[in-house]
Amino acid sequence: MQYIEIKERKNTMTLLEVNNVKKVYSTRLGGNKVQALNGVTFSVEKGEYVAIMGESGSGKTTLLNILASIDRATSGQVLLEGRDLAAIRQSELAAFRRDNLGFVFQDFNLLDNFTIQDNIFLPLVLAGRPPEEMKQRLEPLARKLGIEDILQKYPYEVSGGEKQRTATARALITNPKIVLADEPTGSLDSKASSRLLKLFAEISKEGQTILMVTHSINAASHAGRVLFIKDGCVFHQIYRGNAANEEMYAMITDALTIIQTGGMKNE
Amino acid sequence: MNKLLLLPKLSIMGIRRNGASYFPYILAGSFSVFVFFVFSSILANDIMLTLPRSSYALLLMRVGQVLLGLILLPFIVYTNSFLIKRRKKELGLYSILGLDKKHMAVMMLWESIIIFGAVMILGIVFGLAFSKLMFLLLLNLSSLPVSASFGFSSVAFYQTFLYFLAAYGINLVMNIIRVFRTNPNDLLKSPKKGDREPKHLWLTALSGLALLGVGYNIAITSKLDSSIFLNFLLAVSLVIIGTHQFFKAGLLAFLKVLKRNRRIYYSKSNFVTISGMLHRMKKSASSLSNICIFSTMTIITLLCTLSVWLGSDGMQDFQFPYDATVNLNAAGFRNRDGLNEKLLELADSANVKITDRIEYTLQKLRTTRKENVFTVQDPESHYYDRETIRLILLDEYNAMENTNATLGDNEILIYSTGADLGFDHVILGTETYYVRKELDSAAFARKAANNTYGREIYMVVSSIDVMDKLRTAFGSTADNDRMLTISFNLEGQENDKDSYAKSVRAWCEPQPGYISVINGTGGRRDTRTMNGGLLFIGIFFSIIFAMCLILIMYYKQITEGYDDRNNFDIMQKVGMSDEEVRGTIRKQILMVFYSPLVIAFLHTMAGFNMTAGMLNALQLFDTGLIIRCGLIVAGLFTLLYGFSYSFTSRTYYRIVKQMRTDVTAERRIA
Fold first, then answer.
1. DSSP strand E in B310-352: where?
2. Calpha distance B641→B406 (Å, rounded)
3. Do A23 and A182 meet the contact criterion of CB atoms below 8 Å apart?
4. Alpha carbon of B240: minimum distance to chain A alpha carbons (Å)
5. Which of A51, A131, B294, B379 is geometrically suited to a Cys-Cys bond with A220, CB 3.0 to 4.6 A?
6. How far is B270 from chain A (nearest CA, A)?
7. Among the three residues B520, B535, B569, which one is the final residue of a domain in this structure?
8. Which residues, other chains included, contact B627 with Cβ-Cβ below 8 Å and sequence gap of 6+?
């Protein structure tokens, strides 16, 4: 099995460090063990836009859950700004997530009992921010995401694209250290997808760190770097450099082809 | 697979897959069949007609059966509509897989047949097993002679079958209409859309409060008179509509006010709770109103049942203070010595002993009353203003009461069997009489301050001259003759007392001047029989109401469970801790679920006056007892409510957990 160690480091601050993370699932009786992650190592610099690609079952969702502190690694370390996620007490986890992480999910995960505006406010309210500040934060964000007109509507009254932009606003409003996106375009049509991806690119340009899990080549082609996961390991990675989206797209396609065939030869 | 077999198979699968909601539905249906069948069997039984004094119980059972029919039908239809709504998705899937609407209608038919069959079989089997027991219970409660021969009549089967065939037939028709009216696209859409707010929220809220207010007002101020049943129906309908309006809009409006205040709304502890409750209220207004109404019905039924049960002795004593009373025309009856001899002689042979004997002459005056002025009765006057005054002679009064009161010719003692009159003088015709004293009790009739309907006014006058003068003044027609009344208690066996009173009646009847013989022993037994019938019906109706209540509550919890499953997870991902999420959801559910209980207590309190009034009509005047019963019932009902809440909420948590087990299982490993 090929394993590419990343030596090259840019001269920026490391935000997220993932060191040899393993995850083993076992059935309740402890009989069958399934190795979901098999020593994943990589790091994310501040302001980077990283896409993680892999097929279904490659372990990318498990990885994201561990990064999101929803799940814990069996062994290895995840450090966010040098802080070990495993060392955070269960009771503080919710607050930790709220303060440091922003989430965008495939199925939006908006609450139907809140208006669009209140859905976006939710993390701020939980953090005990005053209403004036929430309003101030929301205004520029809503303009940027193009959702000013639907703020008083309910999630079931708006389109999928609008829902996902709402979810993005909710993720961004806390100024998180990192935005974790799980197949954010997975439930969107192509038009809504490209609008969202453009937005992600803009946000990234403004300095927001984004880590996106996807198996859409199109989505990944907008990222600054693409990591490929296969069988629980980081298998390969591509840096954008100065490449345009189209070139990036071609590079990803090539890499996927190699991984597919190479992987087959290996087994 | 054969298409003929596929559809029934799909129906069975449909029922089994939705077991969590269908089994309670079938169970409740079976219980309804059971109760209906028991009532039918008892009514259809010939023995009922041959039993002595069974007419009251029979009448009550008949009324009960009609009421039962009226209550069960909307209940069965309501629960069905809940169930079919939940299955939109499944039906949509079938239609996409190529089952056309005709087939789905056939599937619905099969389902209805299976459910109807199950419900009938279960209900009738239990009915057959327990009808006799229930019959014996009725006889026992009604103190009717326990008869062992209880047969089943085909009429009962027939009635039960037809009634439930109609009920489930309506359900089938409604399900088929639903299948035909929705297209697969609608069917597949998840039922996420919250019900919209009512259009005129504030108007609806205010009208709800207004209706409740008017209903309460009628209930609280209504007097016990001939219009009480009309008032009762009016108040009940107003309160039912008002309750629906209130739950639909009143609480929403209140929450909206809270929401409008940013400081209150956007705080950690209120944000999720207020919006969650708004969401919940929108979706559950009708179940909450129904829970509230069924709670009120259960409480009031139990209250009446318990009061009648515990107050039965008091009722009997009020109606029949003596074991026997002989009423004779004082002028027409000549054989007074003969009567006295006969009474003793008959007592000897019947093996009873006469005690507490009283004897008095009564002169009735038919008058029209205005405050303390009594004039000759005007046939045009409202019956409300008519009053019959009963005059009693002072020396007879003194003999009865063992007193030696004295009166002047223009003085009287006054005694009302209802509330005190409070007059210092009365004007009878043209003469003024001063009230020497208003009596608190008398040997010849019981008094209760809240006795309004059957209230009698007695006046004790100084001499027979005064009595005659008044009699002449108020017209001396034949039906205005003086009446001689002899009342006494008896010592001995219950049956001996009864037969003694009967033999006295048999002897008196042919005598000239005979008016009536009141058999207190038998009369009390009749009252017991009627109360027993009321009790029997009360018990069954309380159970039926409670069953409706619990089922609606259970279905509500299931719905909430499915709704909250997602919310649980999302809120956690957005940054609420497990405990916080659990805490807020528990708080919301508690508040939403206990609001009907609180409103039901308010309803009960508002309806107390009316309930007590109707119990008064049954001559149960012990308000203290009714209040005590109310408190006991309120306590018991709170327990029942809390119990069924915690019982049904277990289902809720099971549903919510179904989704979360994956996550927790992983945590356990980690």
1. 324-329
2. 61
3. no
4. 28
5. A51
6. 10
7. B520
8. none
Residue type, A238: I
Rounded CA-CA distance A253/A266 in Å is 20
Q: How big, in percent rounded to 5, are the helix, strand and coil portions of chain B? A: 70, 10, 20
Rounded Cα distance, B31 and B326, in Å: 49
CA–CA distances in Å: residue A150 to residues A143, A155, B191: 11, 9, 22
The answer to whether residues B187 and B329 belong to one domain is no
Residues B563, B569, B573: CA angle, nearest 5 degrees: 145
Total domain count, chain B: 2
- pLDDT confidence tier of residue A12, bands split at 50, 70 and 90: low
Which residue in B470, B269, B449 sits closest to B364, CA to CA? B470
CB B317 within 8 A of CB B520: no
Q: Would you tell me how many other CB atoms lie within 10 Å of the CB of residue B430?
A: 7
Strand partners, B434: B411, B425
Average pLDDT, integer, range B181-208: 69
Whole-angstrom Cα distance, residue B640 to residue B476?
62
Q: What is the pLDDT of residue B185?
A: 64
Domain boundary residue, one of B455, B488, B520: B520
B35: containing domain: 1-193
pLDDT at B662 over 80: no
- Answer yes or no: do A156 and B192 touch at CB < 8 A: yes
Lowest-confidence segment of B86-90, B223-227, B339-343 by average pLDDT: B223-227
Structural domain includes residue B235: no
Is residue A165 within 8 angstroms of chain B, CB to CB? no
The residues pairing with A236 across neighbouring beta strands, listed in sequence order, are A228
Q: Where are the beta strands (DSSP E) in B377-497?
A: 386-393, 411-416, 425-428, 431-438, 457-461, 483-491
Give the chain A residue nearest B189 (alpha carbons).
Answer: A156
Which token pair is B532?
């027993």
Q: Contact A123/B574 with Cβ under 8 angstroms?
A: yes
Is the residue at B581 inside a domain?
no
Residue pLDDT, tens place only, B471-507 = 888 876 666 788 889 898 888 888 888 888 888 888 8
- Convert B329-363 to b/e letters by CB count within 10 Å (16 or more is b): bbebbeeeeebeebbeebbeebebebeeebbbebb
Model pTM greater than 0.80?
Answer: no
ipTM surpasses 0.85: no
- Calculate helix-pair angle for B268-319, B520-574, nearest 10 degrees: 180
E-only strand ranges, B216-352: 324-329
Length of chain A: 267
- Closest chain B residue to the Cα of A171, Cα to Cα: B574
3-state SS assignment for residue A152: coil
For residue B204, is it within any domain? Answer: no
A114 and B CB contact within 8 Å: yes
Please tell me if residue B484 touches chain A, with a CB cutoff of 8 Å.
no
| Residue B604 pLDDT > 70 | yes
Residue B381's DSSP bridge partners are: none
Does any domain span residue B410?
yes
d(CA B577, CA B582) in angstroms, rounded, equals 9
User: What letter represents residue B331's amino acid?
Assistant: A
